[in-house]
Amino acid sequence: METGRYIVLLQDQQKNALKKIEKELEVNITSSEFLSKENRSYEIINQDNGVLYKNLGVLVVENRDEDQLKSAVKDESNSIIYYEKEREFFPADELQLISELKKQSAGLAEKIAELEKYIISKPLPQKSFIEMEWGLKAVGLENANYTGKGIDVCILDTGLETSHPDFSSEEIEGKSFIDGQDWNRDPNGHGTHCSGVATGNTRSDNGNRYGMAKDCNLKIAKVLADNGRGTTSSVIDAIDWAISKKFRILSLSLASPVRLDDQPSVLFETIGERALENNCLIIAAAGNDSNRPQIPQPVSMPANSKSIMAVGAIDSQMKIARFSNAGINPSTGGNINVCAPGVDIISAYPKNTKNKNNLYYSMSGTSMAAPHVSGLAALYMEQFPDKSAKEIWELIENKARPIEGIKYRDIGNGLIQVYI
Q1: 265 phi-psi bin (left φ>0, alpha ψ -120 to 50, beta other)
Q2: Pick from 55, 50, 67: nearest CA to 8
């Protein structure tokens, strides 16, 4: 008998169907519509209580018997159609990869420390060196006639350091899905960096432009703790909340690695579809498990779902980033849809142990590529207000530019471009 936290997909949320599930699983179910600042899902879910995310038809239960769940799926009179164990998610950036390597390979500690020291202490390029705006230039932002005005873009990450001067004057809505941690503080820095890439404007120190959709409405969902870790239930809790709020774009710079030939999660396939049905586009980082050119790895979860847009990363030389995952599970899903700048990307960052003297920081990862696409989606949605989320997705792919010498499996339809 295996127990733990499980994510359960339902076909039917009618009262009778839920009562049957409550009886079979011996659990009380609370709908997400009754959640609030004082009544949060992570405070409810325990041995006796589960939470149903009503916009997604997804139930989270704790310490259930897996045999019991298997029986429920086989029972055709039951509303339960699928379940899976909760997973852990991490920021999709280079430094997070280093952190995981430290835990797995004690013998590599010295080399890892050297690499980490290099990445952290790597000086910001001087103003004369393309001003670190290469990513915005590469996607044609200087030609943009739109700024994302009126479009809600939600960043699901480690939160936002709202005291940062680039965000302190904005009215920003947010919610934390991590027990005991606030959404409006970001000791980690990853969420602030990604928020800057998608929605920032200009640097307060030198006036250089670094963000894609400067006039969009920034929304924050803290789904990763200050240590950079989060779980399936925190992610789906936030997605359900964002759909309730009718946010148009969800940006997920987080990933959980998968193996070659792994099937995509039915859970995230369904969540992505239900989001699109609610006119909401989910954009996710493809993950950073590759060590190119020898060993590309498959697209991570949840980006490997066909209903979620997967974003790979390129560098300023228009080459695939060495860490960027690839669409090498084509028979089971997990393709790259588009690529975006993801190497040496400067954005807003809180002052912390890694960044003591600056309000900006250079990071690399598919984490940095995904919010470029999220920002672009906001420009498109402002430009084409009558287009659905699915049509915006198609437009992003159709306007992307192939890069000579790079395979489709690595960059999908190509490098995203501003629509002119």
Answers
A1: beta
A2: 50
Query: Can you list the positions of beta strands (E) in 298-380?
Result: 309-314, 338-341, 345-348, 360-363
> If we measure between CA atoms, which residue out of 90, 79, 70 comes closest to residue 6?
70
pLDDT at residue 128 tops 50 = no
Polymer length in residues for the chain: 420
What angle is formed at CA 251 by the lines to CA 246 and CA 255, rounded to 5 degrees? 130
Please report, as a single letter, which amino acid is at residue 328.
I
Where do the domains of the chain lie? 6-86, 90-411
CATH topology of domain 90-411: Rossmann fold (3.40.50)
> Cα 295–299–303 angle (5° rounding)?
165
Overall average pLDDT of the 52-67 stretch: 91
Would residue 157 show up in a list of annotated catalytic residues for this protein? yes
Q: Is 367 a catalytic residue?
A: yes
* Confidence category of residue 276, pLDDT binned at 50, 70, 90: very high
**Rounded Cα–Cα distance for residues 58 and 270 (Å):** 9
For residue 300, name the pLDDT band (cuts at 50, 70, 90): very high
Tokens (6 digits) for 372: 């470029």
- Across the chain, mean pLDDT equals 90
SS3 203: coil
> What interhelical angle do 190-199 and 366-383 show, nearest 10?
30
- Tokens at 402, concatenated: 């192939």
Annotated catalytic residue, options 256, 307, 367, 374: 367
What's residue 330's pLDDT? 65
Q: What is the pLDDT of residue 64?
A: 84
Tokens encoding 213: 């959709």
Q: Edge to edge, what strands does the sheet with 88-91 contain?
A: 230-231, 88-91, 254-255
Q: Write the CB contacts of 19 (distance below 8 Å, at least 6 apart in sequence).
A: none
Please pick, among 32, 152, 176, 190, the residue that the annotation labels catalytic.
190
Alpha-carbon distance of 19 to 6, in angstroms, equals 18
Active site residue 347: no
Cβ atoms of residues 416 and 373 within 8 Å: yes
pLDDT for 132: 44
Name the active-site residue from 93, 152, 157, 410: 157
Cα angle 256-218-308, degrees, rounded to a multiple of 5:
35
- Decide: 266 and 9 in contact? Cβ < 8 Å: yes
